[in-house]
């Protein structure tokens, strides 16, 4: 396979405004070669917009450049309009109506740039009864039904950090943008993307939602095949207070698992005898508590039992498989995930910090603003270099 000299999104120009979900989505675009320019306010409270600063080693900032624009000034809004007119993608992450009031709504921007992909990232979506309500990931996940699925039988839902709305939302946004860019290539026309964190959380449970309506899934958490309802797809505590993850759904893996645990099929009820699941669970609980997590890792090593240790984030950096695959990389003093997914011909790469933290004139030169224009805008207080840390 011939490896090309540039990444898949080389030449794609992206303007980003808003919060972390949109920044997460544009992180994927930057990793794959897009030129991402973040727009924000010059100081807290100075204007509408997200804080613009770039932080060394922050995944949401990697591979990007930035400029502060005072959007309370008419000439600041005009600068933003000009930048958007030269972009392939504009990402905004505000409540419905905010960018319209700024003067950079989709109608204006698409009129000036008909090939523009105008990507809108909100919590509840552009329409619906709750479109204007405040909220965070936990709220979007809650009404999607997805949060309810994460928990144990008889217990409360378990909060899965902010994966379901914020970060899933950013990934869905990146997918939507690349899909829309393909459509631009075939139709010559841009369009508006309405991406919500509610929809992102909901789509993660789409198979379960259908299963519930078809009678294949229970709405009671902890009573299904892959939510801890089966004793051989569950988490178990070990002698040192750590945990292991067991996923031996198939009979061949189940037989290997119990054999390495020192059990036989004769010691246990049938694998699929649901009336005896509690007996199997008690046996597994008892046996796993006899050894430490790492002792169980050694016992299971080399055998296909669908078994893995539950690692902390810090431990995951040093796991042999993650090290050999390069799952994590150190970037500017911070450990983070390597760019994904992996392409054979146009591999992704994290742009060095030195290529991001450049003079403002260099940042804007690639967007059609010459040095004299940039200097005049700086002198007028319309734009400024972003704070870097």
TrEMBL record:
One function term, GO molecular function aspect: catalytic activity
Cross-referenced InterPro entries: CoA-transferase_III (IPR050509), CoA-Trfase_fam_III (IPR003673), CoA-Trfase_III_dom3_sf (IPR044855), CoA-Trfase_III_dom_1_sf (IPR023606)
UniProt-listed Gene3D superfamilies: Crotonobetainyl-coa:carnitine coa-transferase, domain 1, formyl-coa transferase, domain 3
Annotated protein name in UniProt: Unannotated protein
Organism: freshwater metagenome
């Amino acid at each position: 396979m011939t490896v090309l000299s540039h990444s898949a999104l080389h030449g794609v120009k992206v303007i980003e405004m808003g919060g972390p979900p949109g920044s997460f989505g544009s992180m994927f675009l930057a990793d794959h070669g897009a030129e991402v320019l973040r727009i924000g306010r010059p100081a807290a409270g100075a204007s509408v917009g997200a804080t613009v600063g770039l932080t060394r080693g922050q995944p949401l900032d990697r591979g990007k450049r930035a400029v502060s624009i005072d959007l309370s000034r008419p000439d600041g809004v005009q600068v933003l309009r000009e930048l958007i007119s030269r972009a392939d993608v504009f990402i905004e992450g505000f409540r419905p109506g905010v960018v319209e009031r700024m003067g950079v709504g989709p109608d204006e921007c698409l009129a000036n740039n008909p090939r523009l992909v105008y990507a809108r990232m909100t919590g509840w979506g552009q329409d619906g009864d709750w479109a204007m309500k405040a909220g965070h990931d936990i709220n979007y996940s809650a009404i999607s039904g997805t949060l309810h699925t994460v928990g144990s039988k008889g217990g409360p839902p378990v909060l899965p950090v902010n994966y379901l709305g914020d970060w899933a939302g950013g990934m869905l946004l990146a997918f939507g943008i690349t899909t829309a860019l393909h459509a631009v290539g075939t139709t010559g026309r841009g369009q508006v993307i309405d991406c919500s964190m509610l929809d992102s959380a909901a789509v993660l449970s789409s198979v379960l939602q259908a299963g519930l309506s078809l009678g294949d899934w229970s709405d009671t958490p902890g009573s299904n095949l892959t939510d801890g309802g089966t004793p051989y797809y569950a988490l178990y505590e070990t002698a040192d207070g750590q945990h292991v993850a067991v996923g031996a759904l198939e009979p061949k893996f189940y037989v290997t698992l119990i054999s390495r645990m020192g059990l036989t099929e004769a010691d246990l009820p049938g694998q699929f005898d649901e009336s005896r699941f509690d007996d199997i669970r008690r046996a597994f609980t008892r046996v796993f508590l006899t050894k430490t997590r790492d002792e169980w890792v050694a016992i299971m090593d080399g055998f296909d039992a669908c078994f893995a240790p539950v690692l902390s984030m810090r431990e995951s950096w040093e796991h042999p498989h993650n090290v050999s695959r390069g799952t994590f990389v150190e970037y500017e003093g911070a450990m983070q995930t390597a760019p994904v997914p992996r392409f054979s011909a146009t591999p992704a790469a994290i742009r060095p910090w030195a290529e991001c933290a450049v003079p403002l004139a260099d940042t804007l030169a690639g967007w059609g603003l010459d040095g004299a224009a940039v200097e005049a805008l700086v002198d007028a207080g319309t734009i400024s270099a972003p704070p870097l840390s």
